[in-house]
Amino acid sequence: REPASVTKIMTMLLVMEALDSGKLALTDMVTASAHATSMGGSQVYLKEHEQMTVEDMLKSVAMASANDCAVALAEHLAGTEEAFVALMNERAAQLGMENTHFVNCNGLPAEGHVTTARDIALMSRELLKHDQIFAYTTLWMDSVRDGAFGLTNTNRLIRFYKGATGLKTGTTDGAGSCLSASATRGNLSLVAVTMGSSTSDERFNAARTLLDYGFANYEAVQPPSIQEQLTPVKVLGGVERQVEVQFVPPMPVVVEKGGGSSITQEIQLAEDVHAPVEQGEVLGSVTVLVEGTPVSRYDLTAASGVERMTFLKGLETLWEAASRMNS
Q1: Is the pLDDT reported for residue 116 higher than 70?
Q2: Catalytic site residue 65?
């Protein structure tokens, strides 16, 4: 189906990734081209050669679905909108969005510009990994141009749904009313996608119903710590005979409410490792399963470094041991 302005989730994702990599900064100035100002539809009415910060343009895209700002950002990042769209399609493929093809960066009607609810959910989930986006998607009202131009969020759930965090609306005659809605309650975050609704109210009601169902029936459970099950790994040829194992606690797992007992973990840990050992070196992994189905994985790593034992290091060790005995 046509996604309309929900397309801009991918546009915002690429901008956020460019910010994270240092390719862009929120304070960078973006100059509007004649092409960007010609978009029509939802916009902040950029004038050719007008300059605005990346942050204000990103906020205008997230809140007011500004077509002109989406194109200006795309051109600033990739040189041309066409080059940016190629990046969008490349990123979609990386995310497993198997039924998506973008033709533009803002979702205005175009032949062959299509996606699916599942694919929208995938790119929504990826965008939600960037906390900075919430600075814009959770705002109900704000402004740009030093307060001269007001912005109101097109996503009414931000104001009226408990825990709403975003994410993007879209409406055209061909697409109908579309929405990717995100919300967080406690440590559970959900995304609901609706496409092709006949009215704006219908899409909001549908998304609200989906989110209500999710929060009523599912919970996020932290897998129990496996620390007590871990034993040090033997180090071969090292100045130390073993190395302790550490790990970063895994993310919570979503299960049906009351289904925490269905979570199990399978530990794979090396029996030994050859020196030298680097701190943080991967020594094994843990697979998290729900009812026997793998859902995530995390690494087990060396808690410290261990040098290789050399002849000189051996003499030094013997000397230190002898000194301790004599003292």
Answers
A1: yes
A2: yes
Give CA 239 to chain center in angstroms.
42
Q: What is the DSSP secondary structure assignment for residue 133, as one 8-state letter?
A: G
Set 60, 65, 180, 182: catalytic member: 65
* CA-based nearest residue to 201, from 139, 156, 161: 156
Strand partners, 272: 234
Q: Computed from CA positions of residues 66, 68, 70, 76, in that sequence, does the dihedral angle turn out positive or negative?
A: negative
- List, for residues 31-64, the tens digit of each pLDDT value: 999 999 999 999 999 999 999 999 999 999 999 9
Backbone angles phi, psi at 52, to 5 degrees: -150, 150
Nearest-CA neighbor of 57 among 48, 70, 39, 74? 70
Instruction: Give the list of residues 6+ apart from residue 322 with CB closer than 8 angstroms, or none.
Output: none
* Rg over CA atoms, the chain: 26
Measured CA to CA, the distance from residue 148 to residue 97 in angstroms comes to 39
pTM: 0.88
Q: 277: closest CA among 303, 238, 305? A: 305
DSSP string, 223-281: PPP-GGG--PEEEETBSSSEE-EE-PPPPPEEEETT-GGGEEEEEEE-SEEESPB-TT-
- Does 5 participate in catalysis according to the annotation? yes
What pLDDT is recorded for position 324?
72
Active site residue 8: yes
Rounded to an integer, what distance in angstroms lies between the CA atom of residue 11 and that of residue 168?
11
